[in-house]
Write a structure and sequence with these properties.
It is a single chain. The chain has 166 residues and is α+β, with helices and mostly antiparallel strands. The protein contains 4 helices and 7 strands.
Length: 166
Amino acid sequence: MAVRHHLIKASPEAVWSVIADGSRYAQWVVGTSASRPKRGQWPHLDAAIEYEVRLGPVRLTNETVVRRCAEGTALELEAQAGPLGTARIALELRPWGEHCLVIVDEHPLRGAGGLVHNAGLEALIQLRHRAMLGRLARLCEALDAGDPHPGPATGEGAVAPEAGHA
């Protein structure tokens, strides 16, 4: 089970506002190049975001579904990875002084991913989490500092706005 934490120098409310904004998903989730609402109202139970992963000229479309939401403190997701199956990704937000400690816990849930899960894969997930939490921190800290429209946390992350949000 890959568990990692990161202290974000922003309020828990600022961090939650980014996580709860489905249109920002591709800005902080490593591996996604675009995201858009698929069904429901993110981050409510059973809401889904469709996202795109680009591997050279190949574009794969998958979805992430909200399985549990405790507004302001926890979000548990099931991310689909095509033939590899699904993964459970739990994000927990804890106030830490004036900042926010974010804990991410990810592991294979269904399908082939669980069969090939080993120490090498755990190491790759840890690297992905480090990058993802770094992106999330940069985005949240920029917003918390008053930048209402920070750019993507990296060169990737074109984001399609949610319906009603231009």
